[in-house]
Specification:
The complex is a heterodimer of chains A (122) and B (410). Chain A has four helices and six strands. Chain A is α+β, with helices and mostly antiparallel strands and 122 residues long. In chain A, strands 2-5-1-6 form a four-stranded antiparallel beta sheet. Chain A has a two-stranded antiparallel ribbon with strand order 3-4. The chains are: A alpha+beta (122), B mainly alpha (410).
């Protein structure tokens, strides 16, 4: 079963991305990635550029609307995602708790939906 | 009623609820096995107490009052349920008993039977501890859910399912017979220890999954000890948890940094808790039946000896681990053994002991990687040590332990 770990980060965590090589947050992420790969549960994922680089698009009454910034106006913002292959939600929650973002932001765990994917892709 | 009187009434209710919860739930459910209704009845009684005690004063025997009130509510609840399910015989039994019940303030303590029911082999082992926490201590599902990293809704559903199984599955409220007792008691002890979290205090940089329920686990062990004071392992379990609990204040520096056991300031260890742990360990030893929890407590007792002698007798710890592995060759035990071997015989020997563990078992087991990283670093095998540190760091949940390992990694 695949699970998405949606990583929500604080402004401080986004700022830490520009810190030097010895930054503990960066070190924790490197180690976490290695542990996921070595445990053979890592499927894929990507970090995202900070929320201020986002642009939100809507069509309202047929008119195009583009807005600067992310979709949701919250302190913690989506900073990336990781897809894991695991037997059950229990293991996914364990891995989420180990994620470096869990102690300074939040990690949302969502099962991937292969059923819906099949309906969409045929 | 004045504000302070009201406050003291409130406190009385809280105290009686905490002290009597398990006794009342156990007693109410012991005949019908209907834990859910017993809990509902008790919460109705507590609500009634909150309404009437501040007005009429606290009754002379608050526990008996709660029991009588809960009993009436329980009969109503069970009747409602059983009208649909036609269980008139249980109802007649209840009515019969309720006469004595309401008249007598005395009632038997059935918590031991309840503990055995919660850890019954027919119940999913993952639910043993949550059931105990809820039915004996009255913890709510959300609190238990957080401790076990499960959503509150899911935990609530699993608890309801387990209670339905107890009610409908023919699980009897009884103390197991002599023949089955050791195994059944083990399950009870395991479940209590699971609430405590992982206490591998003797290995530097090991992620301790504190469930934040240490106090509750110790409370449960004390309840069990009251009811089974003749069992060596019950003393052993309490001794183990008290030894670990004694070090709580020393485990973190003033700035919240993680302090491994070997670097802890023993002045910060709680002397009364250590003394109490030692008494229980001695009591257990006098009964001449060794067991897993006594061995683990003995290991912690050797560590506690540092407060007296200034040193740690690693040979003794290694020997206790050897015995422990014979009883329970778990990953934790084998990793702890390797760490002890490294201290007693050198890092090379410790690594060799780690090498005996199946690589398939340790891909997500943090303590293995933490111990391995330290040993490789001690031997100057830098690239391998860095790799092991990364694995340990990536598997660590506690940010303080993670930072400690990041610093050691360098």
């Amino acid at each position: 079963m695949q699970f998405a770990l949606l990583i929500f980060e604080s402004p401080e965590a986004f700022a830490a991305r520009n810190a030097d090589e010895n930054d503990p947050y960066l070190g924790a992420w490197r180690a976490y990635y290695k542990a996921l790969v070595e445990a053979d549960v890592y499927v894929g994922g990507n970090p995202l550029q900070p929320p201020e680089t986002g642009t939100t698009v809507r069509l309202k009454d047929g008119k195009r609307r583009a807005q600067d910034g992310p979709f949701a106006d919250t302190k913690e913002q989506l900073g990336g995602f990781t897809i894991l292959e695991l037997p059950s939600l229990d293991e996914a929650l364990e891995w989420a708790a180990r994620c470096p973002a869990a102690s300074i932001g939040a990690v949302e765990v969502r099962p991937v939906s292969p059923e819906y994917l099949r309906r969409v892709t045929g | 009623m004045s504000g302070s009187e009201q406050e003291s009434t409130q406190r009385t209710i809280e105290r009686v609820a905490r002290e009597s919860y398990g006794r009342l739930v156990a007693y109410l459910s012991s005949h019908t096995r209907d834990l859910g209704s017993a809990e509902d009845a008790l919460s109705n009684a507590l609500v009634a107490a909150l309404e009437t005690w501040p007005r009429d004063g606290v009754p002379q025997n608050p526990e008996a009052w709660l029991l009588t009130t809960a009993r009436r509510s329980f009969i109503d609840l069970v009747r409602h349920r059983q009208v649909a399910e036609a269980g008139e015989s249980t109802l007649a039994l209840l009515r019969e008993e309720s006469k004595d019940m309401i008249l007598s303030p005395e009632f038997p303590d059935e918590r031991l039977k309840l503990l055995f029911v919660c850890a019954h082999p027919a119940i999913d082992p993952a639910m043993h501890t949550p059931l105990m926490l809820q039915t004996v201590l009255g913890l709510d599902a959300a609190r238990i859910a957080h401790a076990f990293l499960i959503s509150p809704t899911t935990m609530g559903q699993r608890l309801v399912r387990a209670k339905t199984k107890i009610r409908d599955g023919g699980i009897r409220f009884e103390i197991p017979r002599e023949r089955e007792l050791p195994q059944r008691l083990d399950a009870v002890l395991e479940a209590i220890y699971a609430a405590f979290g992982i206490g591998w205090d003797d290995m530097a940089g090991v992620d301790q999954r504190g469930r934040d329920l240490a106090e509750e686990a110790i409370w449960l062990a004390r309840v069990l000890l009251q009811l089974m004071s003749g069992e060596a392992e019950v003393h052993g379990l309490l001794a183990l948890m008290l030894h670990c609990e004694a070090r709580r204040a020393a485990r973190r520096g003033p700035d919240g940094r993680y302090v491994p056991l070997s670097e802890q300031d023993c002045q910060k260890w709680s002397r009364p808790l250590i003394a109490e742990a030692e008494r229980h360990l001695a009591d257990a030893a006098s009964r001449g039946r060794n067991g897993r929890f006594q061995l683990e407590a003995a290991i912690q007792s050797v560590h506690a000896g540092r407060a007296r002698s200034g040193g740690v007798h690693w040979n003794a710890i290694m020997m206790f681990y050897e015995q422990l592995i014979r009883i329970t060759p778990t990953l934790g035990t084998r990793t702890g053994y390797a760490a002890a071997v490294a201290e007693a015989r050198g890092a090379e020997a410790g690594l060799a002991a780690l090498g005996g563990i199946d690589p398939d078992d340790i891909s997500a087991y943090q303590p293995y990687w933490a111990v391995r990283a330290h040993l490789l670093q001690r031997l100057g095998k830098t690239p391998e040590a860095l790799d092991a540190f990364d694995r340990a760091i990536g598997l660590t949940e506690d940010p303080a332990v993670r930072n400690f390992l990041l610093e050691r990694r360098g």
